[in-house]
Design brief:
Number of helices: 2
Radius of gyration: 29 Å
Distance between the termini: 73 Å
Shape: globular
Helix content: under 10%
Structural class: mainly beta
Amino acid sequence: MLFLSNVVVYSVQGQESAVAKIAIPAEVQMHIIEPSHPWRPPFGVNRIGRSFEVIVTFRSKEIPAGEFFLAGLLNGKEVCRKKLLLTDKTPFAEIVPQDEDKNHLTLFSVNNPGKKDIAFSGSPAITEKIDQVALIFSETGKAPVELTRQAVTVPSFEAEAVAKHDRVINPVDLGTILVPANWLLLAGGQKAYVTLAVLNRSQDNLAACSKIWYNSAPQNKVIEPLTLNQGNRVQKDLSLPACSKSLQKDILHLSVENAEGKELWHKEIKVMIVQNPPALPSFGVVKTKLRYDSPIINIVDGKNVPLSYDELWKPEFEDVVVCLPNGSRWIFWRGTSYIPVWAGKYNTCLSYEWAERLSPNDGFTDCLEPLMDKELRYSKVEIVESTNSRIHIRWNYQSCDFNYKVNGDLPVEDYYFYPDGFGTRVLTLKSIPEAEYEVSELIILAPQAAFPLNFMSPDPVDIISVTTGEKAIIHLPEADQTWKKISDPCVYRIRLHRDEPLAAIFFNPNLSSKPGAFKPVYENEFLATPAYWGGHWPLSRGFNTMWNINESVWDGPSHNSLMTWASNRPKPVISAVTETKDAFGTLKTMKVETWAWLIGMTDVNDDTLLQITQSYAKPPTLDVSGAIQDPEHYSFERRAMRLVVEKKKVRIMIRPDRWCVNPVFELQNAPEQLQAVKLGGKTLQTDKYAWDGNIFWLNATIDQPVILELLFRE
């Protein structure tokens, strides 16, 4: 593409073009959306002064060389004008300008590639009172031409406020999950602050004040004077007193009053308070029941009959939370049908998917996948192992359809985690030989009232070749596919939220294909999300698989599918066809396959990540005395080297292929007590390793041959 006078010029094929056509009114259209579309920026207080959205559509794939302006008029007279800056970027909140700009308006691409025209969208910051907007084109050396004019209705008074906690705490650490985005989550006694934006477009200057208070403490109002001159937008951050130390719920009231005490605006924000958060270990696993206060969507005969979260499942069902030293949380939640996810600090989650049968599926209603198992008829979670060296969680499930019908196939997933925060996902699938399955997809879960263009990063996925170090950033919606030329195998880094400091990691050394990006969702031909959106999972009941955005975003959590490998599965670690029983107990010929991935949620840099993945893909060679190597000397499934101990002193020469990072040893027949550990002749302190009588984990990065010595007590 070519930038001429701040206007992007497209060719018919979408490639660069130096030829520009002169626009005529029939070729350019302007749409006004009042109020601005809720799924597109700006969001929250940034909407104040931007009460409507402008969409400019060009009926050809070329844009004329010249300048476009948006003029605001009142009673036929122009009161403001903004030069339009067109960009092919998607309007993510992270990149949409937040500051007021009196002279310019950036329009972002909301184009549907399947249509002949191209479209750009933006919400102009106009603080003046206007009743019309006009689109004007100016070509060099010629008089400006008004292309179109439309009526608008801007409110005389606007106000909005958002409330945030004074420090970020992972909701899971407070015993909650996916708290509605338009609520306020606080620990008992925690402080919060409010960002308030107000705009007065009336003819008179306005003396006013804001009042903010908790419903439980009306005597503790925070009162702030506001001088609202005509056409001036006021924004303030206001600190609140500590919330209740006894209540579980509260309501935050926000009000703007004039000098006579007349209320001009009022808003209520639900407050969820946690008085006794769970005690979570640095490295370990706990059973708990994560709290969720909002009613659950339940569609019956086309109507929503809300359910109470606390009554959805049998009382003996619990959630399982895996806690890792860097603060990351891997959870098996009843609300996801026990599908495990990373739960981030900023109230979003990420799933690597499950075993979903693609075919044959005749005779079933909707998709066959475990997310349909809302009642947990088939999905079960078991803590197999939890020591200071390793955590092992097993998830048994069956894929069912909308009516809980299953097909007899049996998947089981095992998850192993170590004190460095990295683990493995191990999927063993027993299926009919002709079945086609999808086993990997990158899915972000979001709370109710959360919009993808607001919380998602415009660059949600990184890809790095483990063999060559080539790297690329994957943008969504996908426009450039050159990243697919990067050499396999690759490690993927996925961002759960635009502000999340940690990113999820996904790597399989036997994967030789790239994922495909999901298409965005469009409404009325214009982009609404950068990827697939569905409100039928998690939690919500009674919905079939969704293919469009809808109002359920306000009432329940949702998921956003970024990329999928579809039926392109990695080469399995184990594959066999055998006579065995299916889920119904029927003896038949079935295919049994096992795959293993390295997973984690971390902030390590690219170089360190490459070291870790290379270490997993190619374990070191070992020269051992005092023990012998097991016939299965390395387990990709458990990221572990296997030895059988014969003497109380074991000497291991570690020879890394390239890197050996935090090696794990499964030591059979070893004495329970470990007396001393030496690496390279130096005695290690106990914080440099972990030993549980079976699993030895070493905190070390090794790039040269080195001797590890283990001395056991009898």
